[in-house]
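Hi everyone, sorry if this is the wrong subforum. Our group has a chain we'd like a structural model of before ordering constructs, and none of us has done structure prediction before. Sequence below.
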Amino acid sequence: MAAKGPLPRPRRRLNPELRQAAQIAMRERRPSGPVISQRAGFSHQTKFSALLHAPVVPDTPLIRSRFERVAEIIGFHGDVFLPETADVPEAAAR
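Answer:
Right subforum, don't worry. Here is the predicted structure as tokens:
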């Protein structure tokens, strides 16, 4: 019998350099966390912070575009996600 419900979304690790750059920008208030999350299209800063600190995040076009906007806002020049060959722990992928 086939399982019911949505298929699991592909998940990827954020680039740790992007994560660190975003944390530094928020800590130094250039711009602040709420401003970054609003400009990037997140509904609330807590959603942005939860994804920023998660071990892996859903790799959807919407999430990707939002983190690309975060990178643009804070002046980060690099890939948003680690290469797909990076190991994703089984427990984190669920």
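For your construct planning: The chain has a mean pLDDT of 86. The beta strands are 11-12, 57-58.
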